[in-house]
Design a protein that fits this description.
about 250 residues; alpha/beta; Rossmann fold; Arc Repressor Mutant, subunit A; 2 domains; five-stranded parallel beta sheet; 13 helices; about 60% helix; globular
């Protein structure tokens, strides 16, 4: 799990860094920032899995940082660390989807428990993301829902926009338009993301070797698979497997 710390107090920032590093090698602090504005810039660059952020910071406070990241559609989870246990702050944090709030000074046990919960949530989200695609897009056009069923059952096959246009009885251009309109991204990007999500799930299955994964999810070139995996996951397959060692 790739972790980032946004904290204006250097001693607190260094203390949290050392604490996280001492818990497990699977938790890697990939970046640090001393204020919210710099934190936002780094989040856009490194795309961490989880961000530990203080509330009161110069230039941009923690809640503003979380709002900015959420508005951009980034998937980073947030853990708030604050010297003040205030109801209004907690209420706003909950409204932004923040599920963990720690009061300074944080302890080893508290941070370890939070990281374990985040790992478990990520695992559940991963499993859920590759099943019941129709339920994830209930407002989509019936033909796009049919396409999602086909993808879910045939992601390893040679499927492209021309294939779906023939199956659904429409032009490639109209299929592309409907898919992008209802799903929010292009078909090409969706199928790449979906195959990598399936690959992540398969990597949890010890019965399938790492070398077989690319071909099991529809890639004919393993080098291209590894490139796409890193682009989408933010880490290499080997790094991802290292992070999954607890499972």
């Amino acid at each position: 799990m790739r972790v980032m710390i946004v904290e204006d107090e250097q001693r607190a920032r260094r203390g949290l860094y050392n604490l996280i590093a001492s818990i497990s090698e699977e938790y890697e602090v990939v970046s640090e920032a001393s204020d919210g504005r710099k934190g936002l810039e780094l989040i856009l660059t490194v795309k961490p899995d989880v961000v530990f952020t203080d509330i009161r910071m110069p230039y941009m406070d923690g809640l503003a940082l979380i709002k900015a990241v959420k508005s951009m559609g980034l998937k980073s989870e947030f853990v708030i660390i604050s010297a003040y246990e205030q109801f209004e702050t907690a209420r706003q944090a909950i409204s932004l989807g923040v599920k963990d709030f720690l009061v300074k000074p944080v302890t080893y046990e508290e941070v370890e428990a939070v990281l374990e919960r985040l790992n478990e949530r990520e695992y559940r989200k991963l499993k859920d993301s590759v099943k019941d695609l129709e339920k994830q897009y209930p407002e989509a056009h019936p033909l796009i829902l049919k396409a999602l069923r086909i993808i879910e059952n045939n992601y390893a096959a040679r499927i492209n926009e021309e294939y779906f246009a023939r199956c659904l009885g429409m032009t490639k251009e109209y299929f592309s338009y409907l898919f992008h309109r209802d799903i929010g991204i292009t078909f090409t990007k969706f199928i790449k993301n979906y195959r990598i999500q399936v690959a992540k799930c398969l990597l949890l299955n010890e019965g399938l070797s790492k070398e077989d994964i690319p071909y099991s999810v529809g890639f004919s070139d393993s080098k291209y698979f590894y490139k796409v995996f890193r682009d989408i996951a933010g880490v290499s397959v080997s790094e991802y497997l290292k992070n999954l060692s607890r499972y």
